[in-house]
Automatic annotation (TrEMBL):
Similarity field: Belongs to the ABC transporter superfamily.
Keyword list, A-Z: ATP-binding, Nucleotide-binding, Transport
Sections of the chain in a coiled coil: none
Whole sequence portion shown: 1 to 238 of 332
Biological source species: Paracoccus aurantiacus
GO cellular component: ATP-binding cassette (ABC) transporter complex, substrate-binding subunit-containing; maltose transport complex
Domain of life of the organism encoding this protein: Bacteria
Protein name: ABC transporter ATP-binding protein
Example GO molecular function: ATP hydrolysis activity
Amino acid sequence: MGSITLKNVRKAFGDVEVIPGVDLNIEDGEFVVFVGPSGCGKSTLLRLIAGLEDVTSGSIQIDGKDVTDAGPAKRGLAMVFQSYALYPHMSVRKNIAFPLKMAKMPEAEQEKRVAHAAKILNLDSYLERKPGQLSGGQRQRVAIGRAIVREPAAFLFDEPLSNLDAALRVNMRVEISELHNNLKTTMIYVTHDQVEAMTMADKIVVLRAGNVEQVGSPMELYSRPANKFVAGFIGSPN
Ligand code: ADP
Ligand code: MG
């Protein structure tokens, strides 16, 4: 579970067309990176998939089911926000359990899921701490834990590492890739960082002014860029 299909998805804010029309197929279990310069529409496209914005026209399917008019809660996807979105007054345990508590899940099931997420993320010994007592990397893992417990069909990341320092960013990249290997759940990862895209993706979607310039593996984009923009952006010699 976790295939996502966009058919001629268009988004305008008032008179301003931000996404002129995108067709895209994401397969179950893929690690897909949306990359492109600031303002090209990466966040908007992700928010359309999440259901946080309504499409102006076009359709979105998840696992073959049309969700174009469904709200975010009905889509079974989890958006991972940056670590500063944690509740500072709540323990790690409570932060991770928060979406389950909101969904009124039975406590025993909540505990089971939190324990599972904590194990995957190496947070077992930090569950009673407050976010302020954690390192930046641990805080980011708590933010990811909050997504894992929901057992989503796909994880959606919007530049989750942009407020971490360079060394930590490299570590977290590896951790998120390992998490994907471990869970094998579809992940869509938005970044403006070409290196992040090239090192993490199964499939890269290069965006420019709301248009998909090229979709391909890192190797395909590097060796056969569709145009000068892709070549320049990816840093390919062609
Ligand atoms: P990116 O994430 O690639 O930096 P965004 O998706 O945030 O780009 O933005 C794409 C374009 O859409 C920008 O020009 C931005 O100003 C515009 N935009 C985004 N959200 C809104 C909104 N709610 N209202 C009006 N314009 C918006
Ligand atoms: Mg953005």
